[in-house]
Amino acid sequence: MFRFLTSLCFFLSIYGAFPSFVHAELQITSYFKNDSVNGLKISDAYETHNMGLILNKNDTYLQLDLGIVSPDMHQYKNEYRIANRSFGEIISVSVGKKNQKYKELVVSYYANLKTSGEYGIDGMQDWMHRVLTLQPVNKVNDIVRMPNKAWVGIGGQTNFDFSKEFMLFDSFGVEAYFGTDAIAFNPYVKGSKEYTHVRLTQEIGVQIRPFDEVVSAPPISAGHRVIIPYIEVGIEFNYLGTELFIKDRFSLPTVKSDNRPFGVLHAGVNFKFD
Hints:
The chain is mainly beta. The chain is built from four helices and twelve strands; from the N terminus they run ααβββββααβββββββ. Helix content is 14%, strand content 51%.
């Protein structure tokens, strides 16, 4: 709880540090990410659950993310089985700038604070399991819970537009992150296609992660995957004046010992306020 309050205070103090942020046009994005329901299958494996809010003002944004990572629950059915990774409740707070121009280069960058601890997020997970008549998971997950810890990091991203001859992809981009929790490098290509009422998006890339302390956290200390290729498809549309998006990302799991296809559904809604 202390780490949660620390993260919340950090978030609010950063918010207050941008007075122009409060008075400009505001966009709020509410989202969730979940691997239990995706385009490949309905499963209960890995329990990669994230939900959060992003506040955008002009080129400044603040993000609060609540997440759970846990073992493959098909494999780790009870305390007599061996979990393939540690369980953790994770809160992340980020503040950053988008589309900053430096000569011919346009970049986005951010700072991130991430903490693991006992925040009650697993209680929401357990409640949902009871609603869906799935197996209770809190008891067995507590056995392999990762230690309470805090991490900090910085990240950035830049994109280069392709010429109009490229029909499928619009741009090539590179994203990098350096933190005490992980080091990651992510080159990708992405594109979009406008239709009458919807916008289709696609992205192909590879994540290179030489270091990932969340995946390899004790007590399980799982080996993390260094190279993770992925493909993502999505749709964006407007409904009753509100912008919605749905994306599905398919990749290999972050756990090195697992080579099965891994899908994560990402959906959300954008609200704009004058």
